[in-house]
Design a protein that fits this description.
Elements: E1 11-14, E2 21-24, E3 30-32, E4 37-41, E5 48-51
Antiparallel strand pairs: 1-2, 3-4, 4-5
Length: 64
């Protein structure tokens, strides 16, 4: 019989700067207390991918 020892915790996100798609876990999240931001550093270009308090990527509006 197979039992789940630890439920899956990986999330997938993409970087708007370089287009890299990567997975991360809670311990990969970083906080900038001066800006009150929670973010993931992109493993390819090191840009900040901002997260909302819900843990989802923040989508900024685009103005054409």
């Amino acid at each position: 019989m197979i039992k789940i020892i630890t439920p899956g915790t990986r999330k997938t996100i993409s970087c708007d700067t370089c287009g890299c798609v990567f997975s991360y876990e809670k311990e990969d999240e970083q906080t900038d207390n001066r800006r009150y931001e929670t973010y993931i550093a992109c493993p390819q270009c090191k840009a900040r991918v901002l997260l909302a308090k819900s843990g989802h990527k923040i989508q900024f509006p685009t103005f054409d």
